Amino acid sequence: MKKLVLLFVLLFSLPFYGQKKVYYTLEFKELPTAEGATYFSTYEDTKEGTSRTTYFIDGTKRNYDQFSNFKKRILNGTSESWYKSGAKELTSFFVKGKQEGELTRYYENSQIKRTENYKNGEFIDGKCFDQNGIEITFFPYHVKPEFPGGIQEFYRYIGKNFKSPNNAKGRIKVDFIVETDGSLRDFKIMEGLNYDMNVEALRVLFNSPLWIPGKVDGKDSRVKYSIPITIK
What we know:
Blueprint: H1 2-13, E1 22-24, E2 30-31, E3 39-45, E4 50-56, E5 61-69, E6 74-82, E7 88-95, E8 98-99, E9 101-106, E10 112-119, E11 122-129, E12 135-136, E13 142-143, H2 151-161, E14 170-178, E15 184-191, H3 195-206, E16 214-216, E17 219-221, E18 223-231
Antiparallel strand pairs: 1-2, 1-3, 3-4, 4-5, 5-6, 6-7, 7-8, 7-9, 9-10, 10-11, 11-12, 13-16, 14-15, 14-18, 16-17
C-alpha cells in the first residue's frame, strides 16, 4: 500500500510538460486555444532539463530546443530548426546558455548557407556560401539598428530635445521596433518615472530622425530595440 501511495505521489508531482500544447500567434504571443494560432509547442522532461518542440499549426516541425532551466530559458544542448517544407534550416549547440561549437544554416535546397564557430558564447569566425556552394564574403547574420552617427549621437539628440516636465530623476527604459524604413514604432515603457516624464520620452523617440535599420541574413528587417534614458 505504501508503494502504491508513493507511486501516486511521484506521478502527480511530475511537471505538466509533455502533457500540454501551448499555442502561439505568428509573433509568438501565447493563445489560450488553437483558434488563430500559427504555431504550437510541446514539452518533455529529460535528465538534463526540458526539451521543447515547436510545430507549424498543421503539425510540421519548426524547431527543437533543449533547456537546463526552462523557466529561465537557459539553453543547454542541441537547437535545430526547419523550413515549412521540412528541409533543415539550422543546427547549433549550447552549453549553459552560451553558444558553443559550430552553428550551421542551410538553404532550403539543403546547401550550406553559412557556418559560424563559437567558444563560450563568443563568435570566433565564420563562412558564407551561395546556393551553389561557392564561398562568398562573410557578413554577420544579425546586425543591430543604429542611430545615425552612433549611440553617442542618439544621446546628444535626447539631451537637446528632451524637455523635462517636472523634477523627477532616474531612468526610463523603452522598448520599440525599428522598421525597415528606419522609423520607430510600437513603443513600450519597461521602466518609468512618472506619467509626464514617460510621455516626454515617447514624444522625443517618436520624433527621432530615421535610424539605420537592422538586418537579418543580409536583408533589412524589423528589429526590436531597447534603450535606457537617464534623467539627472
